[in-house]
Structure formats: C-alpha cells, structure tokens
C-alpha cells in the first residue's frame, strides 16, 4: 500500500525550505551544501554551512618579528620552537628582519618556514633598499608579507604598490601573506567592508583570479600593537565579508580554500576564542611571536580540539 492509498498526506514544505533531490546520493555533497549556503546567506548573512573543503583549510600561524631582535635573540626563538611540540597540522611561517633571513632559513625546524616582511615588484634595478623576489628564492625563502599596515601608513605604500609587490612575488613562485584592514577612523565611519574590498580589488586587478598562493591577513589597524583586539564577533564578521568577496569576485573554490587569518594584538589569552570562529583560519602574530607564548598560539586549534 502506498502513501496515497493509505490516506497519508505529505505536509507541504515551507516556501523557504531547501528541497533535496530524490537522487540525493547521486548529487555532489558540495553542490547540496552550496544550495543550503545560498539560502542561509539570504536569510542570515552571518551564518554559513562549512563544507568538507572549507573545514580542510590548514591552520596557519605567521609570526611577524618586525624590526626587532638580534641574531642571538632570534636564534633563541627558533630554539624554543625546536624544543616544543608544535601542532603537526599547523603551518608556521616566521617573518624576520631581512638581514637574518638567510641564516634562519638554514636552521628552522622542518615544520617552520621563513618569510620576508616585504618584497619589491622587480627582480633587479636601481631600487636602493629594496629586496627582489629572485633574491629571496636565492636564499631559500619562499614567503613574503605584502601590504602590512605599517608599510601602508608609515611608508605610504598604496593599494597599487601592494598589488605590484604581490605580483612580483607570485611571478617567482613566492607565496604571499597579503595584509588588509581598516583604521580606527574608517571603522567608526562604518566603512570597514568598503576599505577591505577596495584593497582586495586592487590586488585582483593586477594578479587575476589565481589566489592559490595567497593567504589573506585581516588586521584592523587600530588593534595592532595597541593592546586592543577586535572581539571574536567583530573579527568573524570581517572574515566572513572577505570570504563573501572571494566568492563573488573569484569563485566558490577560492572562497572555500583561501585562508583568511587574523592579525591584531593576538596573544595566548585570546587565540583560542578567535581560532574557534568558523572563518578565522589562523593568525599573523606581532609582539607575541617574540615570546615563548608563541608556541601556545601555534597550538591553539589543537588545544580546542583536545577539549571536545
């Protein structure tokens, strides 16, 4: 006896229900998730469903030493990383002052990579004080920062400069930690999303749609080195906006796979709460990367999992 013969009436689905196809097993689970995501984004802009591809983004922790340290003190930091057990699922990159890159690249533990703090767009020429991408490759350095707020504000690097430097690195196969973020004045005006999207669009205009070697670091300028930190909700909102931009400007794949990390007075005391946010894939750590607590930040995601 079928349902009709038994007098069974199937309830009508609500107008906003997501109706799964009868041959669900024959459909890609990612396709189904994207359908659900589209609906939830419409109804609840801050809610997302995380696919297996999304959840597979590798946790990333960058340490930006800035213009700090001597060879002796930086060797001590590396030694501390060697002595401690680091989360084997985390990717760790340390950005040291340029004069120490060659030395550190020879001695860091296997899990840790070395990064420049900036790079120029060209490989040679009369550009006093700059570092060429090919020179980084020559000393086995395969990462660089671009667009850090201190480069933008103190040294007047504009969006086009940052885009050109990013392209220069990518041309040589160097991966980039691309920094974006708003000032306190811009946040108070409510234009955070506009500012960050403008910075991202400038890079897209230059490098195109392949962002597979780019990690985006969202750093609210007002929270860098001030002791202030965006609340987990504020940080998550900004990261969700960046992921929405990746989806609309690039592709679903870019939105799923591009890591978006947080930088802004990250310490061992706030790292776990921030790392628990669905769109925060790690951190770019400033002052705390010079301290033993850097290990705790590297292990934040692992510590969260251990308590579940």
Q: What does this 3D model show about the protein?
A:
This protein has 14 helices and 8 strands. It has helices at 29-43, 52-55, 71-83, 101-107, 133-138, 149-154, 159-171, 184-188, 192-207, 232-250, 252-257, 271-275, 294-298, 300-306, and strands spanning 60-64, 91-95, 112-116, 143-146, 175-180, 214-218, 260-262, 282-285. The chain has an 8-stranded parallel sheet. α7 crosses α9 (192-207) and α9 (192-207) runs parallel beside α10. The termini are far apart.
List the helices and strands and how they pair.
Blueprint: H1 29-43, H2 52-55, E1 60-64, H3 71-83, E2 91-95, H4 101-107, E3 112-116, H5 133-138, E4 143-146, H6 149-154, H7 159-171, E5 175-180, H8 184-188, H9 192-207, E6 214-218, H10 232-250, H11 252-257, E7 260-262, H12 271-275, E8 282-285, H13 294-298, H14 300-306
Read across the widest sheet, the strand sequence of neighbours is 7-6-5-4-3-2-1-8
Q: What is the N-to-C order of secondary-structure elements (H for helix, E for strand)?
A: HHEHEHEHEHHEHHEHHEHEHH
What portion of residues belong to β-strands? 5-15%
Helix content: 40-55%
User: Which structural class should the secondary elements be placed in?
Assistant: alpha/beta
Q: Which residues form runs of ≥5 with pLDDT under 50?
A: 2-54
Number of helices: 14
| Largest sheet geometry | 8 strands, parallel
Q: What does the overall shape look like?
A: globular
Distance between the termini: 46 Å
Number of extended strands: 8
